[in-house]
Design goal:
4 copies of one chain form a homotetramer. The first copy, chain A, is mainly alpha-helical. Chain A has 9 helices and no strands. In chain A, helix 1 crosses helix 4.
Chain lengths: ~210, ~210, ~210, ~210
DNA sequence: AATGAATGAGCGTTCATTCAT
DNA sequence: CATGAATGAACGCTCATTCAT
């Protein structure tokens, strides 16, 4: 890759990052391209050179953020590949880490923006859900299925189990963080993830 | 109350209803006051006479919708006052009805608008959450507490139980309805509510 | 007609007049709506309230000007209804008056704008030609036909005669005024119209 | 001339030709330099290297086109040097050929562009008129003068005769082609040129 | 000399809001 | 009180022009 094209790609990513920041700060309609350009340190037409218009800019910024969130979530779920001796402890650890990812600024902004712009960008919902909620639910279902096979969880539909464990984590957090508006104290995060694992194991432990 | 002032109140409510409809259709920034005025059948300055500006209009429209959603939810939870013989059946009925309310157009629009406008109207989150999620969680906790006392549920923190039951209902629905974008088939709604009750009773049955 | 609606119509006409002035001064693309608004003494959005966009503004301004030019031309041709004793003198008078109309600022701007915007407004050509060139050619043909019947002109196709008389007037003027750019001295105008009538009568006198 | 500078000149001419094409297609203001560069197969800054800015580009493109149109017209008029036996036939032939040149795409675009941009490029009018209308009028006047001397046309001011013959040709064509917008059928072109010669000879035959 | 990338300036259009009736 | 009309402020987008390579 040449130095020039490398610079071009860097600039494109800088613009996408700036766009996500500004969209997150203001919302789609309230964000103005000028502010995005300033945040990225380029002139307004440069934004248009790289990403043809505001809608495109939004779509790509969301898509890039969704990829990052997906990666962070999958990395956490992978930890269940080595469940160790103490299954409850491992689940609590994973649950807690999922909660942390789910509560971080980027995840919350992504959900908020996607959700708030369903009317204008209906197709983004599928894209974002596929890369975040769906993907992590599937990965988790895979792990739970293996745990069932290994006799450490009751047998049954691992998709439902996965869905419910995630619901027990994210549901209370949405409420307690006021839809991602307020920081959730560490202790509360721990309480929620532990309670979720507790209820989950009541229902699904072998 | 005089006939005249009665008419004034009617017009105000017509405007608020129209505002909610249009905001739900377009989103806050994309909705224009002209369209709201047309939907309400009045002239634009009339809107300004009744509700000083667009922000105010939004706040009051959201508030009114939140009141309606709250009432619908509480009515459902009240059914747990008479749990009857078959607790599982009663919970399944209540759970299913909550799912229905939660999936209806108005609830979804309310969540979407509030969520999408956190940046501009941060205070609305508290107002809406207090009247919807919090209120129903409390009412449900009240009912669960009574059921514990009556020996029909294990004793423990009824708030956590309430929170988890609601999470088991709304979490999966958010995913399956693609954040309220897609209709959820009746069968799926039933499956979700039954699975929620099942897991809930695994953890909380006496 | 109410005073209010009268005022509205006045304002619309003021905007159209200002638009024609500015378009004539700058050309279509170079004219900016802001300048038109200033020329009309209103704010920019007022222009958009009355005439939905720039293209519409242009079309209506051109149409109005075409109407005025048409009326002026027809009034001149009408003079041939009373040819009087001295046909040559009457024709010279009419010819000279047509030349005057054809050379005035408004006619020239109208032709220039229409001509210059064929690519963008192809339908305007027909509209303008119908109301100016065609209409005056027909009216003139009518008069010439009567003169033939009255035995004062040779018989023949009056349309061709009309077309040629007008060509003998406008052709030399286009050249001498540098496509309407330069004032044509009164003496030259007279020379052109007299020469045209002379040639015309050589070919068409009874 | 070196091969290199020869290539440079070729590129310059390619740019001028592309510019005329694009200006003719879109009009001056609507044409963008990017499109001209693409039409010429070069990059945008190359256009600026060869012709300093858009105005210059326009001027030179127009000038080049005017030269070509002039040459085509003069070639036709030269045919009157050998009038042959049948003067009417020769005049009809020349008239018809002039009509053809006058109706071709390039001539029409040239007139349209020049005419439409009088406001911005007032000096172009003189340049173009001098090379087209004036030049052909003069050349034609020269031929007519010789024909007068030879006793084949009445004596008199050959400039006026030339001007009127050209007016009788171009005037009706402007109308019938809707200012160059519509194709004029071959039969109509013939009718116009024959009628022009007929009237011309009525007035000017010896 | 030629180009990909960047930019400053400007324009059409919209919209929340306010007058005047 | 209700309304038709008017406006100031923004914003998305384009384009001629210039750097840097």
């Amino acid at each position: 890759m040449t130095v020039a094209s490398r610079g071009r790609i860097d600039k494109r990513q800088a613009i996408l990052a700036a766009a996500f920041t500004v969209f997150a700060r203001r919302g789609y309609a309230e964000a103005c391209v000028k502010e995005i350009a300033e945040e990225a340190g380029v002139a307004k037409p440069t934004v248009y050179n790289h990403l043809s218009d505001k809608e495109n800019l939004f779509r790509h910024a969301i898509e890039a953020a969704a990829d990052e969130v997906m990666a962070a979530n999958l990395e956490v779920v992978e930890r269940l590949r080595e469940p160790g001796e103490d299954l409850r402890a491992t689940l609590e650890d994973v649950a807690h880490r999922l909660v942390e990812v789910c509560c971080d600024e980027r995840s919350r902004s992504l959900r908020r923006l996607t959700y708030g712009q369903v009317a204008r960008f209906p197709e983004l919902i599928d894209l974002v859900q596929a890369r975040t909620a769906d993907k992590v639910a599937e990965a988790l279902a895979d792990r739970l299925a293996r745990l069932s096979l290994a006799g450490r969880l009751r047998s049954g539909d691992p998709s439902v189990a996965s869905e419910q464990l995630l619901a027990l984590l994210t549901g209370p957090l949405e409420t307690r963080s006021r839809l991602g508006t307020r920081e959730v104290p560490a202790a509360e995060m721990r309480a929620v993830s532990d309670a979720a694992v507790d209820t989950f194991l009541s229902a699904y432990a072998a």
